[in-house]
Amino acid sequence: MNQPVLRVVTIDGPAGAGKSSVARSLAGRLGWRLLDTGAMYRAVTWAALRDHTDLTCDEALGTLAERVSVRLANGSVYLDGEDVTGRIRSVEVTRASRYLADNPRVRARLVRWQRDFADDHEVVAEGRDQGTVVFPHAFCKFFLTASLAARGERRFAEFQARGEAIDYETVLGDLERRDRHDEARAIAPMRPAADAIVVDSTGLSLDEVVNQIERSVRLRLDALMSPQPAVGR
Ligand code: DC
Q: For residues 173-198, b (16+ Cβ closer than 10 Å) or e, as one string?
């Protein structure tokens, strides 16, 4: 039996490719909700650091994820009702997030929240596994990438804007390690879905990338809404 088509756009890809900015801008243009799944992993990571949870203990991380609540609303991230939007972007949270991202119970919990978020809503979902695992029946999928140098420069500028003391080489090293780790993960590894459109944002402005993606989305939306020709009559 055919699966129903989900009115979800997925944007997966490595860190620093511009997924967050592209997804936010696209969601604004379409008037759809933005599902920033990295922010969810970051919020649970922040809770683990706050509670001094042993990051190497799978059991403890799983229990933590089932105990806390994460909510996305109006561009902010709430952990147990507390706004943690600014705090989850630190270098410390970024580095520790891999322990949570590798944990099957944490992933299962977050996947449930992510699907609930898309219930009854049109959504632009960004992350690593949105097109492959969370929304395999999404009607339009993208894998957004860029050269390591371009991604490093973006991430470095973000940390600088936040006043975090970190040098460019360290940012680059962290990115490379995180890419390798995300691609090699035993569950939900980062990879393009078979039916994803791969977009390389190297050398493109934010608007150029969003224009390109929006064009594809609108074409598919038009195709979805146009009446299908009758077959075999
Ligand atoms: O995209 P980001 O840098 O905000 O992601 C934060 C962490 O969460 C990073 O370690 C990758 C992980 N992540 C994931 O495993 N699956 C997702 N769907 C989104 C993020």
A: ebbeebbeebeebeebebbbbeebbe
Residue from 20, 40, 42, 44 whose mutation best tests the ligand 1 pocket (most atoms within 8 A of CB)? 42
Give the tens place of pLDDT for each residue, 167-206: 999 999 989 998 998 899 988 899 999 999 999 999 999 9
Report how far ligand 1's centroid is from the alpha carbon of 222 (Å). 31
Q: What is the pTM of this model?
A: 0.92
For the chain, counts of helices (H) and of strands (E): 8, 8
33-121: CATH superfamily: P-loop containing nucleotide triphosphate hydrolases (3.40.50.300)
